[in-house]
Design a protein that fits this description.
Shape: globular
Structural class: mainly beta
Number of helices: 3
Order of helices and strands: HEEEEEEEEHEEEHEEEEEEEEEEEEE
Largest sheet: 6 strands, antiparallel
């Protein structure tokens, strides 16, 4: 609680719309599985990871992620309303370092920092077709467009309409997964809003037309992010992070053609991994890019500002079926 208060005080005094350099240490993660040099996990091939640490009070809580097309720059948002931008480096084909980290606070529509937790809880991030990004917020559920190419971190929140059913999810569980389909529709999948059969509620919409569907749940996992792939299919990042079970992650995939009113979609499972055998944490963000001619997936964890027990980690895999 003391640390969370320190973060809020830090953000409240932050300079408006100014990117500030921040010292971040990046320790390479040698292997995805402890005590093993295995690199292939079904269609996914291990391409390195990093454990990120910083002494700055604001650092942590990253829940949304996008990557540049060449996988060399990342942009993340935290659930305390902070942008993180940084450049990645590689040793051959494997992720090896992070440099030039900068941070800034997200702004509201009036150009003021989102300093209150209920307003700053950014949980989803996706790049839109016009180059701007959309941020999804929980607690005070809403979606905002930020025109970063035009305004940089001075970009202000521009409200994006969303289906009202999203707001009916439980507090702090409305949605964490957001993307844009090839036809221009936005797609969102709930975190903790289920239908009577236990399937996860989801929506695709554009203008005033909404297609409501559900995604069959995989065990006790919850969807924390999604990415729309070049072929139009949807990749879901799902995590289990409960006091009564070991942390786990799952990656599943389904075609955009399956999105239809009333459909119950059963995605294909690409990966399931659990701690402590696998190096994972509370994985909440996923992004896609391309390196060496191969599609790559990057994952980031939300440490909940609990540095004594959790870590901020980046993981990368090539998709090579």
């Amino acid at each position: 609680m003391i640390r969370r208060l320190a973060v809020l005080l830090c953000l409240a005094g932050a300079a408006v719309a100014r990117a500030e350099p921040v010292a971040v240490s990046a320790a390479p993660i040698a292997s995805f599985q402890r005590f093993s040099s295995q690199e292939r996990f079904g269609p996914l091939v291990w391409r390195g990871g990093l454990t990120l640490t910083s002494d700055d009070a604001w650092f942590g809580g990253f829940s949304g992620l996008v990557m540049s097309k060449d996988c060399e720059e990342l942009l993340a948002v935290s659930d305390y309303g902070v942008w993180l931008r940084a450049r990645l480096s590689y040793d051959g084909n494997k992720l090896s370092g992070l440099a030039d980290a900068q941070r800034a606070v997200l702004l509201d529509s009036d150009g003021q920092p989102l300093s209150k937790k209920i307003a700053a809880d950014a949980e989803a991030l996706t790049r839109l077709d016009d180059g701007s990004v959309a941020v999804g917020f929980e607690r005070l559920a809403r979606i905002g467009r930020y025109n970063l190419p035009r305004d940089g971190f001075a970009a202000r929140f521009e409200a994006v309409p969303h289906p009202g059913d999203i707001d009916r999810g439980p507090n702090n569980g409305e949605f964490e997964a957001l993307g844009e389909l090839a036809d221009g529709r936005l797609i969102a999948i709930a975190e903790r809003q289920f239908d009577d059969s236990g399937a996860i509620r989801a929506w695709a919409w554009k203008g005033g037309k909404t297609t409501a569907f559900t995604v069959a749940r995989f065990g006790d996992y919850r969807v924390t992010d999604l990415a729309v792939l070049d072929d139009g299919s949807i990749l879901t990042l799902e995590r289990r992070f409960e006091p009564t079970s070991l942390p786990g992650i799952a990656l599943r995939r389904f075609p955009a053609s399956a999105v239809a009113r009333g459909a119950v979609i059963e995605p294909d499972l690409l990966l399931e991994a659990t701690a402590p055998l696998s190096v994972i944490d509370n994985m909440e963000g996923i992004a896609v890019c391309e390196r060496g001619g191969t599609a790559r997936r990057t994952l980031i964890s939300d440490d909940n500002f609990n540095r004594a027990m959790q870590s901020t980690i980046l993981l990368q895999f090539d998709y090579d079926p």
